[in-house]
């Protein structure tokens, strides 16, 4: 294992509160919520039209691969590939009888040969970008890996006012009970790590790397955004 991959794994464990197994369990439990009717509508509108028999779909930061499992059970026969680095997510990966594969890579600096030039029809990055210290390298490579006309779906938390974040976390807009400094330090670290980018930042990154924006929609009361972008023909 490379030093950079180990550093990423250490960071992801810290990012997930130091408890990888709990993070994997939360991912499994939150799958339906993160792939709800709104997600399915957006996918059907912007990604599904690109798919036909044999099309190649990549889920970046795929976790245990539940979305790939779902895709393998519906629609045309697709070539489905996930990319994941966290060992506790890989340990929870779906059984081998589902028709997809998972590759291990650091998406802050993915290897050039992770995918071939112009070989992807659709790529999904669902709640990935906030975990990247810089997504420009990945976006440049995605622009190369996607076919002309290929679509990238980005869904992620976006920066929100601290007051909005705290109200959402505590379920109320006033705290009357004392709170521990260690607990609050973890909460504020969580805020900074989940509020890296504005919606406009993500759009600027996509434009800078040559993508054409197809759709940009706020969801979850503006705390999250879903974007469809395309490598131009």
Roughly what fraction of the amino acids lie in strands? 15-25%
Number of helices: 10
Structural class: alpha/beta
Ends apart, CA distance between termini: 38 Å
**Number of strand elements:** 7
Indicate the overall shape.
Answer: globular
Strand order of the largest sheet: 3-2-1-4-5-7-6
Q: Main sheet?
A: 7 strands, mixed
Please compute the radius of gyration using only Cα atoms: 18 Å
Q: Provide the helix percentage.
A: 25-40%
Distinctive features:
233 residues, alpha/beta, 7-stranded mixed sheet, 10 helices, 39% helix
What does this structure look like?
Helix 7 links the parallel strand 4 (120-126) and strand 5 (146-157). This protein has 233 residues and is of the alpha/beta class. The chain has helices spanning 3-15, 20-29, 31-34, 37-46, 66-72, 87-90, 136-145, 162-170, 181-193, 199-208; strands spanning 56-60, 79-84, 101-104, 120-126, 146-157, 212-219, 224-230. The chain is built from ten helices and seven strands. The protein has a seven-stranded mixed β-sheet with strand order 3-2-1-4-5-7-6, sandwiched between helices. The model has no long low-confidence stretch (mean pLDDT 89).
């Amino acid at each position: 294992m490379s030093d950079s991959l180990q550093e990423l794994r250490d960071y992801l464990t810290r990012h997930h509160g130091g408890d990888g197994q709990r993070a994997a369990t939360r991912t499994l439990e939150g799958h339906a919520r993160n792939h709800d009717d709104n997600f399915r509508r957006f996918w059907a509108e912007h990604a599904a039209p690109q798919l036909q028999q044999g099309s190649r779909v990549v889920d970046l930061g795929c976790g245990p691969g539940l979305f790939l499992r779902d895709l393998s059970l519906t629609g045309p026969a697709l070539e489905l590939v996930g990319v994941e680095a966290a060992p506790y997510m890989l340990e929870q990966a779906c059984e081998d009888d589902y028709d997809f594969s998972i590759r291990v890579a650091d998406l802050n600096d993915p290897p050039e040969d992770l995918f071939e030039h112009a070989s992807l029809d659709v790529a999904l990055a669902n709640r990935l970008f906030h975990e990247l210290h810089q997504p420009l390298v990945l976006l440049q490579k995605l622009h190369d890996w996607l076919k002309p006309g290929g679509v990238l779906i980005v869904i992620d938390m976006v920066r929100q006012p601290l007051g909005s974040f705290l109200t959402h976390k505590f379920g109320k807009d006033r705290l009357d009970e004392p709170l521990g400094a260690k607990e609050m330090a973890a909460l504020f670290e969580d805020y900074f790590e989940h509020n890296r980018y504005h919606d406009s930042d993500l759009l600027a990154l996509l434009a800078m790397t040559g993508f054409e924006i197809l759709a940009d929609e706020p969801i979850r009361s503006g705390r999250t955004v879903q974007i469809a972008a395309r490598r131009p023909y």
